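To assess whether the prediction recovers the assembly geometry, we first specified each molecular entity separately, as shown.
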Amino acid sequence: MSILLRTRVPQVLTSLVGLFLLVTYFFELPRSIVDVANFIPRFCVVIVAIAVGVGTITLLNHHVSLIRKREAGQWIYSIVMLVTLSLFVVVGLGMGATDRTFSWIYESLLVPCSTTTYAMWCFFIASACFRILRVRSRESLVLLVSAILVMLSNAALGELIWVNFPLVGSWIQTVPMMAVFRGLTMGVGLGLILLGIRVLLGREKGYTGGT
Amino acid sequence: MSERVEHYGTIVLYLLVAVAIAFPILNPIGLPMVVSEDTETYYKLVDSLKPGGIVHYGIDPEIGGFEELRSRMIAIGRHLFAKDARIVFVGFDPNAPGIYKMLIEDIGVPKGKVYGVDYVFLGYIPGLEIGIASYAKDIHALLSVDYFGTPLKDLPLMNEVKDIKDFSLIMSFSSHGLPLNYVEQISVPYHIKVAVCVIGVMAPTVKPYYPDQIIGFLSTPRMGAEYELLIRKPGIGIADFDAQTIAHAVLLVFIVVGNLTELKRAKKR
Amino acid sequence: MDVVALWISTALTIFTVSLIFKETPLYRFAQHVFMGSAMGYGIVMAVKAVSDIAWNPMTKGEAIWIIPFILGLMFYTKFSKKYFWVSRYPTAVLVSTGVALTMRAVVRSSFLAQISSTFLNPLAPPYVGSPQLVINNILVIVIVICTLSYFLFSGEKTWQRNPVMVLLRKAAIYFMMFAFGAGFASTVVSRIALWVGRTRYLLASEARSITSIIIIFTALVLVGQGPLERMWKRR
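The predicted structure of the complete assembly is given in tokenized form:
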């Protein structure tokens, strides 16, 4: 009974719900059954939002334990993290997410940190251009030629060389690059279909604690 | 010793890139630009909208990717308001509300446009693909209020929109895989093509769907600058284009120098 | 943006980017502010979404919204050593819904539509007048076939050794390298655009003096951190 409730029933539930949604999509069924099927994704929207708290609690557990242990070189930063998190939660839930103060702390704290964390990659790309983008074989020569042609067409450099240069970059992205990624997309699509079938048949057990 | 040389060489490299980008921002050059076919296609798509047509404007980037999409989002937003389109702003990324506030300030809503009549913001809908599917099926069954707490039935614009089929044009501006989710949950079930703007990193993945399932496709910041040229409202796209060009030039120099170094090393061996 | 916000956001920007030189306490501070902000903002948005989509309608009489609340709260049993298995139920619902929604569309979007877009008759009327389009269509067909053949892993000792297959796979490698080069260039333009945006913000007229002061401060920390750490260790 215990194993039934703990693993088998969730697996069966996965198969039933998934097959139910697929059947209601592909076949004409009575309105009442279709309405039930329409409710399920709406419920999942709410479930996903409620589940955000799980990640928060995990993070809080980790950082609170670091603070308790006075982990050298880390516990002060954990306090910083908790203070910032509390600030957002208190202002957002207390004053409302539409409040100007909440927007202020969003634009002052989250926007610069997040944008700069991604923007830093510009420097790492520059380093990669110098160290890694080197011709060591015929294949890497082909990669380099293509990269240079597209880089020239993405900036005004191409136009300075030849006014129709951007057409070269556009052709590369529309024909060979698109064709290769189309092949990859089809392969990934096949993989997704097979994975979906495995999940619906109950063969994928990782998320239900099986092996 | 060689480690120190490499370390300081890296610092010099980074400083060169930073200066190369800073210089044209402080001293604009005004480099030439030819408008691409993809930008013209997207422009014509928006330009062909009838006055009063309702547009779904998907604010779907993460805040980290918003900076790259900003010029395109602003230019297209301004174009939509100029065409008297009515816009439903909504986002499937949690950053949508924060980005909406910055975006609407940047676009500058024209005088005479009224919230609730000409544009609304429905807020953030969780669930990614599941959220898109629910939204497309029946907006009023999923949402009862807009982001500011106003009941949808009190917003005249939302009384004309029940589901995804009521939109004249569906747009997504995204920095991750959401355009593919739009294709799967809107293009396939409802046979409606979507227009997308993506960041450069996502362009190869999304390109195979264009033009059969995606009707408009802007993939680089340069296209934002081109769009500003087409609508004759210069903005940050054109302002950033010079810096983009100089930065590319510097990186191409790095590639050449790196390869010359490699050639020298290969000859020594 | 007011002055205080300018100072805070400029400082956080420069502290974050100081990582490219060296990891400093300033960078770690900025990163932990980022983590806390992202998590806090996510919580607020999630609570607001739940409130707008489910809680308000439920309090107005739509009792059916209690179901996702119960399922969502079941996730929190994950932290219990005795009842952690209860969280598998909402996981099962989410996984099955996601799989069903994806599967019903991916067959067409990622597979059938891609095939029909690829295998166009290159000599059909729309393309006949334009040799470039004909060549492009033929190239697309050839490249897609080559790419797909590269990822076929069965038949290693039989049909994989066929000269045609060997040629297709060799061609596929070159086509893929060409495509990945173009993809790399797209990544370059994307990353440069992000830093250009940040630079525009840092060099805006109202932020220039603030930027200079914070850069000098960060540079002093970068330079002084090493000697200070060595002094501290000796003590």
